[in-house]
Fold each of these.
Amino acid sequence: MKRKFMLLLTCLFIGIGLVTAQVTKVTGTVISEEDGLPVVGASILVKGTAVGTVTDMDGKFQLPNIP
């Protein structure tokens, strides 16, 4: 009985790890190469998809749930 319980828990933890590994959050900052200042309003797109966002006033962006 104890062995079956441990096997069940192991499968459960592995399954949870696989499900959460499927998506990720991408964050970053776009900085100008010329003067090193953040770029406001830059478009960020995931290649091959229609998923995207725009940088904020500090040049930062966040794309949640990216496969």
Amino acid sequence: MSVTKQEKNKMTVLVIGGSGSGKSSFAEDVLEKFPESRKYYIATMQIYDEEGKKKVERHRRIRKEKGFFTIESPTDVHKNCIKADIKKKDSAAILECISNLVANEMFKEDVIYDRDTVAGKVKSDLWKMISEFNDIVIVSNNVFDDGIDYDDTTTAYISAMGEINRFLVQNADEVHEVVAGIPIQIK
């Protein structure tokens, strides 16, 4: 792993990969290397059922010894960080994960929000977080490789993810793709 601080003394790292690739574990390792004493884990998974609840509990157990302060934020990540009174300038955070966040923002309150509205809102929230946190690691899924034709709603979601991931790549100091547990630095 070659995570290095930039001259601006802030670091934004994007970790991307497929489901079950090991990207979350790698992202946590990256976050632990940052010097800030206060580290936040901003979790975006929306819990719908018992299986989701068990997954969240498992993740919390795994992270317990790492000393992260967890903030559950399935939507409105920037607003929820403000509510949690995070001292962003003196802290580091991991945002896990963009694919959940985009889905939660697109399909909420029994409404399907359009692609441009969702992409704009998520990018705005992400830009604020990148600007405010001293260091941030952002985790995103690669949802583009299966080559399957989807319905219009799913295609809009994938398109929004593509726009947001490109935005993140442009604004990240480092980008790592994790494939079968192996991180590969691509920026």
Amino acid sequence: MDKCQREQNRADCLRGAILTGMTALGIAVMAIATFVSSASALSLLDKIRNGETIRIGYSNDAPWAFPGENKEPLGLQNVIALEVLKKLGVSKVESVVTEWGSLVPGLQAGRFDIITDGMYILPERCRNVLFTEPVASIPTGMAVMKGNPKGLHSYQDVRDKGVTVVTGVGYRAVKNAQEVGIPDEKIMQVAGNVEIVQAIKGGRADAGVGDYLGIKQAISNEDGLEMADPFAQYEKPGYPAFAFRLNESMAVEAFNAQLKDYLGSKEMMKSVSKYGYNKSTLPDGSKTVDLCKR
């Protein structure tokens, strides 16, 4: 005689059977949800081991990172990133090109796995992403009209002469200009280096400030512009690196291990020299842990 036959109230038995079935179904649903959740939460190293496509995010930011005619990732940061990823066993890479200001939010939202643009290591950024060790040491550069008619060679010159300086949204030049005492209305912020050049050419700004390699690249085909020479450095060089999500410390460690051997090698220098990178732009020994504190 089974349990149902032993029950005095067969209706209770039926209800019990239904509840038992619902409980089993609930457990199954929870198991499926847990599996899906864990699958979607794979670490970057797990994705690499599984042979999955790794997505890199960058803006149109020559010479650091930019898309080619066939949408292939170009630029010195992309060259380095792709080679290091290859050494880690990555065979499939997908590019996500977005605006500079969308890079960190895009990384956090999972739109891509690594930021490969020329993003400087800054304390405020270190609160939102994990940086690798620096891949370069880059001074600041200032672009001006040919002949530098207003004699601009520093942030202080911009301030004292009451002219307008243009730089990129989120660039450290914004903070530098404010600290020197340039009024906010004299600090124009645009999307990137291309827009910086357009602002100077259009007469909306008298000088454009950014990383030396980026600004120099942006004016390379502009006969009416030149680099201010000399330009007084306001602070230490910028240190670009690759950025990962905050929970990817193991991936950063693995990336750094490969980067250490590749950085400055003949193989690397041959690949990035066309973007203006040379021995003078190699990292100067500064460490990310210290740069995140300064």
Amino acid sequence: MTVLDLFAGPGGWSQGLRELGLTEVGIEIDPAVCATRAAAGHTTIRADVAAYPTTPLLGTVTGLIGSPPCQTFSAAGLRAGNTDLPLCHQALDDLARGRDTRSALRQACSDPRSLLVVEPLRYALALRPDWIALEEVPAVLPLFEHTARLLGAVGYSTWTGVLNAADFGLAQTRRRAFLLASLTRPALPPEPTHADGGTPADLFGDGLPTWRTMLDVLGCPPAVVVTRGNHTTGGSTFPTTGPSWAITGRARSWLLKVGNRPAATRRRLDQPAPTLLFGKALNDVSWIDIDGTPIRRLAVEEAAVLQGFPTDYPWAGSRTKQFEQIGNAVPAPMATAVLGAVLPTAVEVAA
């Protein structure tokens, strides 16, 4: 099968496909992201998705993946995409009618990147792949629902909804909108592999394990509690190389803080991380002490693991670009679960 990955990013979808024994060809314009993909062994066409022609791809694409840039719709950005929503809906309808009005509508947008969300439909209508998997921030769900209706009109079974990556083994409560479509089977969401607090065994199975935590994936050592005789002083020392987890209630643990506001999200090490956002300042994602004292910024390797990548993933570009790539990537465990739900089975491929 030939799988085309629009706005391919550093390789979240690619890693998910590898787990399923498949590869793809990605289209990506950012040179640093392309360098990361090359170092990781992912095939890439460096090009602008919105300008790339579909004609050379006719008859070659059986699967289509797309994660359009989310900055204009993200809660971490200025949300200019909210203003541009009517123009995006119009572009979808125009494409379905065979009219390409993207150029004129792009000029009318508050942020021209907003219109990139319609590109997967342009490719889908031209190439008619067997299956489609799209991902974006939850604010884009109405556009995904509109896209799904248009795909349904040309024969696709579709599903749209919001999934939490923690339900699929990621140590992060990252919520994203998805659109799944198929010409060969009913489009259904993936079955969760984990649950908040876990679920008990019943007649139908063993139940689900609880969400994975930062402690689980980062391998945090316990804090060293200072003791005198039979009494604990309440003090603790922390390793400088990584977060620590207190072994008593009186000792202190590291927490992860995302955001620089007084009400910024804070999570303990025995919880999943919140959604990692690396927008304007890297020190917005930092380790702090239990009393709020800053310890240090989150390391690239830690961010990568919390996003489902291996610790030695070959990130390219500046430190800022590396964090940007991590924050924008589809977590590999999430990609594997979603793709496993939409890919044809071996029996269907043989038929």
